[in-house]
Design a protein that fits this description.
Keywords: Cell membrane, Membrane, Protein transport, Translocation, Transmembrane, Transmembrane helix, Transport. This protein is mainly alpha-helical. It is built from three helices and no strands.
């Protein structure tokens, strides 16, 4: 196993944790009924939610790049 494989595995695990820690304010029932849809409402995210959003973006980019590099090296 190469070091790039370890980076891909660690970033994937951290990405899963970051996504699971994010809170969801949407109700699944509203998604199917169409009631009270706040999907397109502009809400400013702050604090820990902003950090988790940015962390998930960075971790996903790191994971994608490391997987592509890992496949091209072999």
């Amino acid at each position: 196993m190469l070091w790039i494989d370890w980076i891909a595995i660690i970033s994937a695990v951290l990405l899963i944790v970051a996504v699971l820690l994010q809170s969801s304010e949407d109700n699944i029932q509203d998604a199917f009924s169409g009631e009270k849809s706040e999907l397109f409402k502009n809400k400013k995210i702050r604090g820990m939610e902003l950090f988790l959003t940015r962390a998930s973006i960075v971790l996903s980019i790191i994971m994608i790049v490391s997987v592509v590099l890992s496949n091209n090296i072999r």
